[in-house]
Specification:
This protein is α+β, with helices and mostly antiparallel strands. The protein is built from 10 helices and 14 strands.
């Protein structure tokens, strides 16, 4: 495997043919994505066309924010974002698998004004972002990044559509489930664990939606669960780590499985990561695709015993149920009426 993938165990997929939408190369990209999703649920994305200076701008602005005194960071605490679920949380405030994570972070999403119909209706996880007054450059960096990664998410999902072998048009997702996507963007700082402690930056979990695109700094720490055990997903300069989420698992009837992963920062330095979650329309229901529905019953059980096919309702219902467990206190404060 290492010989086949010189950058590490996880495969590397060049998505440049999906950007040009030319027939040449599309079959091979689809084949590589299918193999990656079937074998690992994770792969590196190269040939994406995202300018390196965009992530550099974002990293500088985020580092400046996290260097602020705690009182200044709490000026944009998530509780101030209300149902939009945006803003800052301190180390230990987010729970993964019921345990506090050793990380602090910022939650962002698509920037929606107060006059947007979804915001006026009080739809959870929709609304304006919170930005720090002390780091004015962060706003432009975040919004530019969200715009570019939204386009990349649509691009990678073209390859996913082709990879399924169901005769789907390459723009199947963009014309349907992600025509109005749920876009969630996080920035995390993982401090080095105190001496003598080995706390997890993020415990074992799967992502909730369709596709995650992760940029990570040079310090590493991401680990992916495989049938043969846990493997590292080290940073590769100029790439994103892509992984599939629970809704793509559900949509494909388990043909593609959302893969457990976790983070432990052992670098001795701060670790920054930038996960971008590209998910279905908040109001969409996600039934298995024709031709894939039967696989769910015949496949291997999920790592956590959950049956994704048992969910009834919209993606928004599923997402709220998940994030309410991640921030139980915030749920009680701002989402008590909305979360199931």
């Amino acid at each position: 495997m290492a010989d086949d993938h010189p950058f590490g165990t996880l495969p590397v997929v060049d998505v440049a043919p999906l950007l040009s939408c030319r027939p040449a190369g599309l079959v091979e990209v689809a084949r590589q994505i299918e193999a990656a999703c079937r074998e690992h649920g994770f792969f590196y994305v190269t040939g994406h066309g995202v300018a390196p200076d965009l992530l550099a701008r974002l990293t500088r602005a985020c580092a400046a924010f996290f260097a602020l005194p705690q009182a200044a960071k709490m000026e944009i605490a998530m509780a101030r974002g209300g149902p939009a679920w945006r803003g800052y949380f301190p180390v230990g405030a987010e729970l993964t698998s019921g345990r506090p994570d050793l990380k602090e972070g910022l939650y962002f999403g698509a920037e929606l004004g107060r006059d947007d119909p979804r915001v006026r209706a009080g739809l959870p996880l929709h609304g304006p972002n919170l930005f720090p007054r002390q780091v004015p450059e962060l706003r432009a960096a975040v919004l530019d990044y969200i715009g570019v990664l939204t386009d990349l998410g649509q691009t990678v999902l073209r390859g996913v559509a082709l990879s399924l072998g169901l005769g789907l048009e390459r723009d199947y997702f963009a014309a349907g489930y992600t025509a109005s996507p749920t876009v969630l963007f996080r920035v995390f700082r993982y401090p080095a664990p105190p001496p003598g402690e080995d706390g997890w930056g993020a415990g074992e979990h799967t992502d909730y939606g369709l596709l995650t695109l992760l940029a990570q700094d040079a310090n590493g720490g991401l680990q992916v669960r495989t049938p043969g055990g846990w493997i590292d997903a080290p940073p590769i300069e100029g790439t994103f780590v892509a992984n599939i989420g629970d809704m793509l698992d559900r949509l494909t009837g388990g043909w593609y499985r959302s893969t457990p992963h976790r983070v432990r920062n052992v670098s001795g330095r701060d670790r920054f990561s930038f996960p971008f979650f590209f998910d279905p329309d908040f109001t969409a229901e996600i039934p298995p695709l024709p031709g894939r529905a039967a696989i769910a019953d015949g496949g291997q059980p999920r790592w956590d015993g959950q049956n994704l096919q048992a969910h009834r309702g919209t993606y928004g219902d599923y997402l709220l149920g998940k994030v309410s467990k991640v921030f139980p206190q915030l749920r009680r404060e701002v989402l008590a009426d909305e979360a199931p």
